[in-house]
Design brief:
The structure is a single chain. The protein has about 280 residues and is mainly alpha-helical. The chain has one domain. It is about 80% helix and about 5% strand.
Length: about 280
């Protein structure tokens, strides 16, 4: 099992790295759309949909992404740099502001109340709110620079890694035992410390408006860590309610695509929003 997991992780990283740094904008858009379409198909399982309906949900997301690319090419990185800067926030605001509100204000209550995807309309709306902003964030942050996007994703990976090791070493107090029994407050703090250390180490690469105030940078890094954990817990809750261990078995040793990007779906829109606001000043 460990060997399979390591091999799959290596293949995924090489594929993602090559796509991130070497694909032209149109191919990157297609790549990201394919990834999110798979995630939409898995989301259908959390909604307890049948096979054909899940495929239809995946195709719906792909069509929506294609439509945005056709109607707003500059905003998704298919134009010049000057066109992108002018169009990115106009489109991004419609995606990132609702997504941030959802993760910061709605999901914590959802986790506390343990709501379920009670109706198809709620499931569809939640799925689109979860996946579409992440799709746009992947496009816009990559347009701002492949290294930037990789650095942002490193924040999520460090939060997970720091939480894992701190939780194993010091974990005593359960964070959300009814949702994810393995997570602890000590682990969450350890993940936060790792993210803060990384953020200040990389501060020279950030817009000056984010680094000229150390307290502001600290608060943003803590917020990113918290939102990352919330994204992970949210998918864990929905999988538990659907009676699933993993969102699918498409990635041997790792489960499904949603299992790999759950924290990114919550974190990337927030980071993209902060980045666009900082660079538009």
């Amino acid at each position: 099992m460990l060997r399979t997991r390591v091999i799959t992780a290596a293949i995924l990283f090489v594929a993602f790295f090559c796509a991130l740094f070497y694909l032209p904008p149109v191919a990157w858009l297609l790549f990201v759309t394919a990834v999110l379409a798979v995630a939409a198909w898995e989301w259908g399982a959390l909604m307890r949909l049948g096979g054909m309906t899940r495929i239809a949900l995946s195709l719906l997301l792909a069509v929506l992404c294609a439509g945005i690319g056709i109607l707003q090419p500059a905003a998704v990185g298919l134009g010049t740099e000057s066109e992108f800067r002018a169009a990115a926030w106009r489109l991004g605001a419609w995606f990132f502001l609702p997504a941030t509100f959802f993760w910061v204000a709605i999901v914590p209550v959802w986790l506390n109340k343990r709501w379920s995807l009670a109706t198809p309309v709620l499931g569809l709306g939640t799925g689109l709110l979860l996946l579409m902003p992440a799709w746009l964030a992947l496009l816009q942050l990559r347009q701002a620079g492949p290294t930037l996007l990789l650095a942002v994703m490193m924040i999520v990976w460090l939060a997970d890694t720091g939480a894992y090791f701190a939780g194993r070493r010091f974990g005593k107090h359960k964070l959300a035992p009814a949702i994810s029994p393995g997570k602890t407050w000590e682990g969450a703090i350890g993940g936060g410390i790792a993210v803060v250390a990384y953020g200040f180490l990389m501060s020279s690469k950030l817009p000056a408006v984010l680094t000229e105030n150390s307290l502001l940078l600290l608060l943003l890094l803590v917020a990113v860590t918290a939102i990352s954990i919330i994204g992970d817990l949210f998918e864990s809750l929905l999988k538990r309610q659907a009676g699933l261990k993993d969102s699918s078995a498409i990635l041997p040793g790792h489960g499904g695509m949603l299992d790999r990007i759950d924290s990114l779906t919550s974190t990337l829109p927030f980071v993209a929003m902060i980045w666009l606001m900082a660079t538009s000043r």
